């Protein structure tokens, strides 16, 4: 009788079984969240003895707890301590290996040595007159090539030593021909790297590298495939020519810079870089072909593994590519319904393995974004997709999972992106949605192009058009969305701003179900709330510009200086002094137009790098200029000659400014503190910058050009000898766009605590350097930046009170 009742309760069909969803296993995620920041901010920075001690104590604690495990909490604590000990041991061990040998000591002594090693990453070419990396600079005219060398041997002070240490070479175009995995030898001058950097030292070469060996046959074959792929896409338009190789193998060498910026602004950059999503797409294409070809289910993982290995070799197995490959594999797992429960443990294990393999990934924004985006897919993509689908008509429910993927990625990545951009994108989700249907055909056709180009480049060139058409569509989406008004909102770039956005995002996720139910029950109230929020977000008015009482403006001229001092005898006068003109004539012209300047009484060019003088042509053509004063250090010579030629053509008198000179123009009095004599250390041009203290209607300004620590020390010495000339300084124009090559003693001579940094948005030089921002913060400065806040104006009201206004 009992058996009959049990039989009656059993479902007769399999589809009648009620599936109870299993909870995601997040136990391994807790140790990752603890170990990651400890490695990033402790394990890679503090002295090695402390790291060894921390690893030992963590291991001891884990052993003690394992022997007394009686609860889930203790087991989790023991697991956390075990993982922490593992990653700290890995960090300490790798740091110890890198520190073996004399390279660090030679770098501290700034010695000239011969290094032999292998090119560890594809050389990166950056434009501009100067490059800053890890607190060191090299200033020169023309592009700069950054090359990472995995050094095997260093010859210095008459002794050759075998080592294993990475070195960052900052070179000129003579190094642009170096290929990944080439064996090279070079004579370089070393300098120390900052604590926590992923290189042991920095180097400036004394000449081109000597090639001593080539990559192995596998990597040479991969390079041949990349070259054939580029040849096959040569006939496409500029955007497609750059995007097709980027989407397939992460080759962004031909992507137009403005398109790269548009994709950054719209949250689409993951499509064109070697990222986890990039790998997921390629793996998805491979598995899709398996289904079409009837490959048995058991054989598909092996095909996926072969595709993954081939992709890594083709994209080059650098740390960023390995990281992307691992995250892409986990991301594919995240999109698999049958394996979703294993996703979080797999992601956590992958992060731990990568941190053990390369602890410096803990300080990488790219790694953080990949891991967090993958976590967002695991936690939110499927449940959000189901919830969104339930609210859509039956024929459109397929759109729910499609919308959930970019929504989940944007929600979890936002707090990490904010410190980089200072804004929250409002177009990232719609831009990715519009581009999503175009990504698959571009990738599928692109894979076919890559494969066919190996044996028949002309045929691959015809096939490339099938990839190029949707790629052009992706580019159009990026460019159009980047130009939309209110595409982003200012949020701030501080750690507090990131935490604030994380709290807001978490609150939105937690309260979204309640808000959805309330909206259905009370649609009128919900609509009113939405209108109020939108109205509060939109700007209500445009701030007047120029602000009343302005005395000084740092124009937003990109990566350069374009400074305007109001020289009129009254605040409403239309006369000004310009100190440096930026690189783009149009940008400085626009700034002067906004300020209502009609007469330029004096132009001062601090030094002759293009980002300070190339905009002069626009000023001379559009304004009445009375006089031009320049640095006596005519470096680089070609740009100095161009400046003199432009001034001669415009019949503008030219003079030099030297330490001890005094300049009076209208309401402005300026004292010249440098240059006093040429400095051969560091950058000759930067250390030849004209340094001025300016008094304009009671406000003291220190305009420091691009001077480096050597010139700054001279200025500090002179200021202490002649305090009566130095006076009270209210505003510091930070030298060299926020470079960390500085003398902090200068900060103590600034009475006021306002610092203005003229710097380009998303520049390639690392400006402003975190070390410099930290120093300003410790000294109590209020920092204003043109890359984040646009034009920065210093103003004085009717009572003589100083203020700062920005044109965001």
The average pLDDT is: 81
CATH superfamily of the largest domain: Ribonuclease Z/Hydroxyacylglutathione hydrolase-like
Portion in beta strands: 15-25%
Specify the CATH architecture of the largest domain. 4-Layer Sandwich
Low-confidence blocks of residues: 1-21, 127-142
Distance N to C terminus:
80 Å
User: The CATH topology of the largest domain, please?
Assistant: Metallo-beta-lactamase, Chain A
Range of helix content:
40-55%
Descriptive notes:
- It is a multi-pass membrane protein.
- Its main location: membrane.
- Keywords: Cell membrane, Membrane, Transmembrane, Transmembrane helix.
- With 808 residues, the protein is of the alpha/beta class.
- It folds into six domains: 29-99; 103-215, OB fold (Dihydrolipoamide Acetyltransferase, E2P) (Beta Barrel); 220-283 and 425-486, no CATH class; 318-420, no CATH class; 501-537, no CATH class; 550-798, 4-Layer Sandwich (Metallo-beta-lactamase, Chain A), CATH 3.60.15.
- It has 26 helices and 27 strands.
- The strands form five sheets. Strands 12, 13, 14, 15, 16, 17, 18, 26 and 27 form a nine-stranded mixed β-sheet that branches. The chain has a seven-stranded mixed β-sheet with strand order 19-20-21-22-23-24-25.
- A hairpin with a 7-residue loop joins strand 12 (550-554) and strand 13.
- The longest helix has 28 residues, at 72-99.
């Amino acid at each position: 009788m009992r058996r009959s009742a049990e039989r009656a309760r059993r479902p007769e069909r399999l589809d009648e079984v009620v599936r109870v969803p299993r909870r995601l296993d997040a136990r391994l995620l807790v140790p990752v969240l603890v170990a990651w920041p400890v490695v990033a901010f402790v394990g890679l920075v503090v002295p090695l003895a402390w790291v060894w001690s921390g690893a030992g104590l963590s291991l001891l604690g884990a052993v003690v707890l394992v022997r007394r495990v009686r609860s889930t909490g203790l087991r989790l604590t023991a697991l956390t301590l075990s993982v922490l000990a593992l990653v700290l041991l890995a960090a300490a061990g790798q740091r110890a290996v890198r520190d073996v040998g004399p390279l660090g000591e030679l770098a501290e002594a700034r010695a000239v040595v011969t290094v032999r090693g292998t090119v560890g990453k594809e050389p990166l070419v950056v434009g501009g007159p100067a490059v800053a990396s890890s607190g060191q600079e090299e200033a020169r005219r023309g592009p700069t090539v950054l090359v990472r060398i995995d050094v095997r041997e260093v010859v210095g002070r008459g002794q050759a030593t075998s080592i294993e240490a990475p070195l960052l070479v900052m070179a000129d175009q003579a190094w642009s021909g170096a290929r990944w995995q080439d064996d090279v030898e070079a004579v370089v001058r070393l300098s120390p790297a900052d604590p926590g950097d992923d290189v042991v030292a920095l180097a400036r070469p004394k000449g081109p590298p000597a090639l001593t060996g080539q990559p192995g046959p596998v990597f040479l074959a991969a390079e041949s495939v990349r070259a054939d792929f580029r040849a096959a896409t040569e006939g496409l338009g500029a955007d497609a020519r750059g995007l097709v190789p980027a989407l397939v193998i992460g080759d962004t060498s031909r992507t137009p810079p403005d398109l790269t910026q548009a994709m950054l602004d719209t949250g689409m950059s993951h499509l064109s870089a070697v990222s986890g999503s990039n790998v997921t797409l390629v793996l998805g294409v491979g598995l899709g072909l398996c289904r079409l070809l009837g490959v048995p289910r058991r054989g598909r993982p092996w095909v996926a593994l072969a595709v993954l290995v081939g992709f890594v070799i083709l994209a080059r197995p650098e740390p960023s590519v390995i990281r992307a490959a691992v995250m892409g594999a986990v991301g594919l797992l995240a999109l698999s319904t049958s394996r979703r429960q294993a996703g979080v443990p797999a992601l956590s294990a992958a992060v731990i393995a990568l941190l053990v393999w390369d602890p410096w990934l803990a300080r990488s924004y790219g790694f953080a974004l990949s891991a967090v985006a993958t976590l967002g897919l695991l936690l939110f993509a499927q449940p959000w997709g189901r919830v969104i689908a339930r609210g859509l008509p039956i024929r459109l429910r397929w759109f729910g999972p499609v919308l959930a993927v970019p929504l989940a990625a944007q929600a979890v990545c936002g707090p990490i992106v904010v410190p980089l951009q200072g804004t929250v994108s409002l177009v990232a989700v719609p831009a990715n949605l519009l581009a999503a249907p175009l990504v698959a055909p571009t990738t599928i056709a692109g894979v076919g192009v890559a494969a066919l180009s190996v044996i028949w480049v002309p045929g691959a060139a015809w096939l490339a058009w099938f990839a190029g058409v949707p790629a052009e569509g992706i580019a159009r989406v990026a460019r159009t969305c980047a130009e939309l008004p209110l595409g982003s909102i200012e949020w701030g770039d501080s750690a507090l701003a990131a935490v604030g956005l994380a709290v807001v995002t978490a609150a939105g996720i937690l309260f979204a179900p309640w808000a959805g139910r309330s909206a259905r029950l009370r649609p009128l109230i919900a609509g009113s709330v939405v209108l109020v929020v939108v109205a509060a977000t939109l700007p209500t008015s445009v701030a007047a510009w120029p602000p009343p009482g302005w005395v000084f403006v740092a124009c937003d001229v990109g990566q350069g200086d374009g400074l305007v001092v109001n020289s009129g005898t009254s605040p409403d006068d239309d006369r000004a002094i310009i100190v440096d003109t930026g690189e783009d004539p149009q940008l400085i012209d626009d700034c002067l137009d906004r300020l209502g300047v009609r007469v330029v009484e004096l132009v001062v060019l601090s030094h002759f790098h293009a980002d300070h003088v190339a905009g002069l042509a626009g000023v001379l053509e559009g304004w009445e200029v009375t006089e031009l004063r320049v640095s006596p250090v005519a470096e680089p010579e070609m740009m100095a000659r161009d400046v003199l030629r432009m001034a001669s053509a415009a019949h503008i008198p030219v003079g030099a400014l030297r330490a001890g000179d005094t300049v009076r123009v209208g309401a402005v009095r300026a004292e010249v503190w440098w240059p006093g004599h040429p400095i051969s250390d560091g950058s000759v041009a930067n250390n030849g910058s004209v340094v001025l203290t300016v008094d304009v209607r009671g406000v003291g300004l220190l305009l420091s050009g691009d001077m480096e620590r050597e010139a700054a020390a001279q200025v500090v010495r002179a200021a202490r000898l002649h305090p009566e000339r130095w006076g009270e300084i209210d505003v510091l124009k930070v030298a060299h766009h926020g470079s960390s090559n500085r003398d902090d003693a200068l900060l103590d001579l600034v009475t006021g605590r306002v610092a203005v940094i003229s710097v380009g948005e998303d520049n390639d030089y690392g400006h402003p350097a975190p070390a410099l921002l930290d120093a300003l913060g410790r000294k109590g400065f209020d920092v204003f930046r043109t890359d984040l806040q646009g034009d920065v104006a210093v103003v004085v009201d009717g009572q003589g009170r100083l203020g700062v206004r920005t044109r965001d």
